[in-house]
Amino acid sequence: MNLTDRVAVVTGGAGGIGAALGRRFAAEGAAAIVLADLAADAARTVAEQIGPVAHGVGLDVADEAQVRALVEETERRYGRIDLFCANAGVATGGGVDAPDADWERAWRVNVLAHVYAARAVLPAMLRRGSGHVLLTCSAAGVLTAVGDAPYTATKHAALGFAEWLSITYRDAGIRVSALCPQGVDTPMLADGLATGHLGARVIAASGPVLTPDQVAEATIAGLAEERFLILPHPEVAAYARRRAEDPDGWQAGLRKLVRKLRAADH
């Protein structure tokens, strides 16, 4: 997809990767960019910084009625949605004993929000025979988020859903991409490193930590090539191959890294 004169919606657009996508889409000449976020004021501030082409709105992606209303209002205002980026996500930092509320929130934001977005945008895209849906699934969807069971499980589900969408609708003109970055310099990772969370430390030790702008740049390249799997960290592809070829060896390597990090604490 070429972003020139396109209409794009980005959830989780108030900061991090979402805000970077908004800025990059504007630089590519997008006709309109809607940045939606639970933090409505922050989304509006980012939109103001980008300029007249951008519009910030409040949105709880876990509420299907709100997602549907956002899509309907955007289509009414701009005539269409060419690209919908379901980018919002939440981490819990918990294991199997994480409270049910954390599992439920992760499920609704990391999985059901993608389902709600697809239900809302697909009808018009299918009528036109064109459109692109981008789901931010994280490298955790390809691999594993050590130290965060709900995040791992839901990101795997998100990637599975993205693949299903691509197989089901590509021949109807709909392109689907799964954005799967590893370490990104966002508050989510920074907070984890500040508190010494094991998962954040594993991420930081597994490859370079990219800026959101670098992820946005990789996304533009992936969209232009209509790739399904967009990997801003190329090493994730190598990790995925190793994991598929030797799952026991892959897990042994991760356990070794975890032991090393824990030993450093003593």
UniProtKB/TrEMBL annotation:
CDD domains named in the record: SDR_c (cd05233)
Presence of the UniProt keyword Oxidoreductase in the record: yes
UniProt cross-references to SUPFAM superfamilies, sorted A to Z: NAD(P)-binding Rossmann-fold domains
Keyword Oxidoreductase: yes
Keywords from the UniProt entry: Oxidoreductase
Pfam families: adh_short
PROSITE patterns attached to this UniProt entry: ADH_SHORT
GO molecular function: oxidoreductase activity
Family per record: Belongs to the short-chain dehydrogenases/reductases (SDR) family.
Protein name, UniProt field: Short-chain dehydrogenase
Organism (species): Micromonospora narathiwatensis
